[in-house]
Amino acid sequence: MHLQYSNQQISRFERNYEPMDLTIKHIRGAIPKRLFARNTDMSMIYRVHDLVMMASIFYGATWVDTSLPSPELKASVWVIYWLVQGTVGLDSFSDYKILNTMVGWILHSALLITYHAWQQSHSKHHKNTGMVTKLVKNVTLTRSQAGLPPLPIYMENPLYSLLVILFLLTIGWPFYLIMNFMSPMISHFWPTPPLFDPVQKMTFFYSNCGIALMVSILAYNSHQFSCWTVIKFYGVPYLIVNGWMICYDYVQHTDPNVPYYRGAIWNFQRGAIATVDRSSGKLIDELHHHMASSHVCHHMFSTKPFYHAVEASPYLKEVLGEYYLEDKSTPIFLRSCIFVEDEGEIVFFKQ
């Protein structure tokens, strides 16, 4: 089936872009059914693998200060530890909801992430991807919201751009959880509409208890071993993990070729392809379970096991054809993806 659009309608589509008309059923049918089957044992193996790797790296780091002779060598090894520990990944798990919740709550709390709140906001992110008026993350500014033209003079300063990048890559993620600064002031610590439903207060309470427990553990270890020890073993890797999450969130959905929709022209599958597969290199892709290099597949079928995403992606690429977006260069579009137009049913980023 191929839908036809009138010339008047296409004129409201920037670049005369003709939206994809494939159905979810058609797309799903192009991927072998076995790749949708969740295996609890396999998911657990991946989790244990990640945790053992992190524990091994952590144990090795306990010998840095006592076994290495020079301050310079110690500093170098600590940098390696921070980078490696902040790179090891934790990533549809099983068919058992209780198990999913238990594992998710423990692992997310360990990273100071409010599990249930983030689960709900991330679900809405998936359900509204690509729709200008309902974006939860990666909120797209319109020309009028961006205040263009002109940009304030300080925003043209490279130092300002550097400070913005450093802010986002270090404490941008905690700020998003606390106050959702890219959209209405909504916190992941309290069920505030429209992002959350007030009836979810109890699940928020459980999430906040997980954060409180983790903060208590960190405070106890600070008292037992010193604040500097906690900063070295947990604090710096935590900031690097935040940087990875912000970076991935940005490069997966920010590209001059990603379409954004308004009104009835949007549907789920069109929104799901409003993302880009980008490789971070073989080593990082493996450590992060191909989070960035199979992100289109993740958005199209978010309940499909992550460990089948690499195998499923070529099938998805074939059925989507020209609508599948992939970029192996991982560029930064800080200046070329500033805003979209205030009007138009299909729009693209502009600078």
Determine the mean pLDDT: 83
Strand content: under 5%
Report Rg.
22 Å
Order of helices and strands: HHHHHHHHHHHHEHHHHE
The number of distinct β-strands equals 2
Name the quaternary structure. Answer: single chain
Query: Segments where pLDDT lies below 50 for 5+ residues?
Result: 1-11
Structural class: mainly alpha
**End-to-end Cα distance:** 36 Å
Q: What summary fits the major beta sheet? A: 2 strands, antiparallel
| Spatial order of strands in the largest sheet | 1-2
What do these coordinates show?
The protein starts with 6 loop residues before the first helix and ends with a strand. The chain is 53% helix and 1% strand. Strands 1-2 form a two-stranded antiparallel ribbon. The chain contains 16 helices and two strands. Helix 5 (71-85) crosses helix 12, helix 6 (97-110) crosses helix 11 and helix 11 (201-225) packs across helix 12 (227-253). It is mostly helical and 351 residues long. The protein is globular. Residues 1-11 have low confidence and may be disordered.
